[in-house]
Design goal:
The structure holds two protein chains of two kinds. Chain A has twelve helices and twelve strands. Chain A starts with a strand and ends with a helix. Chain A folds into two domains: about 230 residues, 3-Layer(aba) Sandwich (Rossmann fold); about 50 residues, no CATH class. An eight-stranded mixed beta sheet of chain A has the order 6-7-8-3-9-10-12-11, with helices on both faces. Chain A has a four-stranded antiparallel beta sheet with strand order 2-1-4-5. Chain A is an alpha/beta fold. The longest helix of chain A is centred in the middle third of the chain and has 18 residues. By secondary structure, chain B is mostly helical. Chain B has a domain of about 200 residues: MetI-like fold (Orthogonal Bundle), CATH 1.10.3720. Chain B contains 13 helices and two strands; from the N terminus they run H-H-H-E-E-H-H-H-H-H-H-H-H-H-H. A two-stranded antiparallel ribbon of chain B has the order 1-2. In chain B, helix 4 packs across helix 7, helix 6 crosses helix 7 and helix 10 runs antiparallel to helix 13. Chain B is globular, with a radius of gyration of 24 Å. The chains are: A alpha/beta, B mainly alpha. Chains A and B meet through helix 2 and helix 4 of A and helix 8 and helix 9 of B. Chain A: Pfam families: ABC_tran, oligo_HPY.
Chain lengths: ~325, ~325
Amino acid sequence: MDILDIQNLHVGFRINDTFYDAVDGVSFTLKNNEILAIVGESGCGKSTLATAIIGLHHEQNARVTGKILFGERNLLECSEEEMNHIRGAEIAMIFQDPLSALNPLMRIGDQIEEALTYHTDYSRDEREEKVLQLLKQVGISKPEQVARQFPHQLSGGMRQRVMIAIAISCKPKIIIADEPTTALDVTIQAQILDLLKELQNETEAGIILITHDLGVVAEMADRVMVMYAGEIIEEAPVQKLFASPKHPYTRLLFNSMPQLHSTNERLNAIEGIVPSLTHLPRTGCRFASRIPWIPKDAHEEQPIFHEISKGHFVKCTCWKYFNFQHESSINR
Amino acid sequence: MWKTIVRRLILMVPQLIALSIIVFVMAKMMPGDPFTGMITPDTDPARIEELKEELGLNDPLPIQYVRWVKNALQGDFGKSYTFQRDVTSLIGERALNTFWLSFVSVILLYLLAIPLGILAGRYQQSRLDKFIVFYSFITYAIPTFVLSLLFLYIFGYKLQWFPTGGSVDIEVEPGTIQYIWNRFYHILLPAITYAILGTTGVIQYLRSEIIDAKTMDYVRTARSKGVPMRKIYTKHIFRNSFIPIAAFLGFTITGLLGGSIFIETIFGYPGMGQLFVSSIASRDYSVICALVMLYGFLTLLGSLLSDIILSIVDPRIRIE
């Protein structure tokens, strides 16, 4: 069942009184009990997309258009008050850096309780009870003690568990996890990911997992969307994407992952950088400038999605003509 | 925490000793002596010499210093040459005057500055904010003595709303309600002047802290929990923005005894600031030394108090 249906979403930021779209015509759906991963390099618009879904962009500096259908409602047409009933209760978010995402002057228990105050009619005692239960649920062994502590007294992994406890406190239908493990070390990362997956099995929430870590994607996701310069350029079930990535960007991304058995001393990198928001080409294939060795007529003038197998979509036709640069230089 | 406080208090001792030496030496290096102003063509130089000898002013400096410290430790800072009375009781009386003036001033200052700072930060870039910022720059730019004189002239002499000097009228009976009211009435105009001039710091601090806090990640978290913006301001933003103000509170409290030299002098209010200026003018060493020592002690105490207050309001800071 689709619980979220996003259609032609644009998010523009104001730069010198002109709006530039950081998310440019994105459409996708999310089912319940599904983990949808959004991957892409820094600045591709993935966090902007997530923030737009929960409606946290600054009204004056950001322009959000399109449709975000959550059940019957279009979230972009909801008032601030209606959004406050949805945020935390039906759509929750987990942020990247749990230290700065928690109020340093507020006790952990109070910060979890806050969500319950606004979305449930529990009494004070019931809320406190629920806080302890949530802390236990996210694997914190001394909930009474932790509830009275302040964020700085906890470790990074514990803090992220607290963030997760806040997110799941009101049993949301959708959890948006914006790089939830980036600020943590590797062993803790695995624990947090396991916890997320475990909780999802219990609550059947749909999770949008934003990351740039392909390892996390392989471990967690059911479906993957690859973003580049504000657009989705490839979408596929996770096995298909890892077995046969199609879009040049996806292929280069996989190629740039360090390989344990490789004797190559240098890591493979993608040439160039993501064009800045103000200099982004708004027509044609946006990735063309970073694969200059591919002939221009390989790209579509107005790139569209092509379904190349069931559930596997690729934007533009350039993937058919793509080869890695070192291969082409050998051929020449 | 008590251990830390005691240790900090003990650490003050060497600092105060260093300060006392500097104060003593500098006071002695000032040209002239208490008798310079009293010399007339009729004065017998031998008599002056006799008086100096009597007061121990001709002894070697180290001996004078030790004698001074010994007495000071017993609460005796000597006699004021110009007032002809004990420095300790003189300062005690002035300190009480200054305390009440400063107390009313600081209360007025916070009553004025905190709402303005909150409004400016809350409604950043609005007309109200621009007006408040403009106001705070104006009051920051006006020198104390200019505004004091202006207020004194307008509200004191022209409109005659307030008394123009002193701390209490002579005819009122001490201990009555009228006496207390009369003292308060004398305090009001200098206190208002002080409060208006002092608002800039608090307004600007609070405003920029609130503007900063608005963009913090924990505010975004609170919004993602569905907390209404109004509640986010009261529960998250304002509380966190008060930390730097609280950090200054220790200095503010001990500063209550310091007094303002300009305000007290211009409004003719018999407080510490005025005493300080007049004692320098009349080379009243014992008063100067006692006052500087007191100010030094208050500053050290203020920093300790600030640290204690900060550790109470900010759980991240624990003084160990």
